[in-house]
Design a protein that fits this description.
Number of helices: 3
Distance between the termini: 32 Å
Strand content: 35-45%
Number of strands: 10
Largest sheet: 7 strands, mixed
Bound molecules: zinc ion
Radius of gyration: 15 Å
């Protein structure tokens, strides 16, 4: 059973890593990624005025299908926002009043052999989390300062 956690979006102090991050039951996901050697990215969030933009909100609420080749959502991206720099994705599913984040993966672009292709590695150390629908939708519309 995937454990129930609480998602929040909170301001982080580290200027270099972007202003806001996803927190899972109080733990910064970016910090966890750094611990796994996947730092240097920023949460795929907007500015303070429009923190979760319409496209990201629709993706995270499963209102539209995931945009990556494997149907995932780009969750952490390069500070320049170009997915070709590599990014971390998550699979989001909506089931029985919960949203589930699972199958975290690292994607990078392979420019070898005159052909551009995307490679994907699972990040098995990051475990799946389940979020109650009410908390989850509130988190996507509300920022805690
Ligand atoms: Zn970049």
């Amino acid at each position: 059973m995937v454990p129930i956690k609480k998602l929040t979006i909170e301001k982080i102090s580290n200027r270099h890593s972007g202003e806001y991050d996803f927190f899972v039951s109080g733990k910064s996901l970016l910090q966890e990624l750094k611990g796994l050697g996947r730092g240097g990215m920023v949460a795929n969030l907007g500015s303070e005025r429009d923190l979760v933009d319409t496209q990201m909100r629709e993706l995270l609420l499963c209102e539209v299908a995931g945009t990556t080749a494997n149907g995932h959502i780009p969750l952490y991206v390069c500070p320049c926002r170009d997915l070709a720099c590599g990014y971390i994705s998550v699979k989001v599913t909506h089931s029985k009043g919960c949203f589930i984040w699972s199958n975290f993966a690292y994607h990078w672009t392979d420019f070898t052999q005159n052909e551009v292709s995307e490679s994907v590695t699972q990040i098995s150390e990051l475990k799946a989390s389940r979020f109650k629908e009410a908390d989850y939708t509130a988190a996507l519309g509300h920022v805690s300062h």
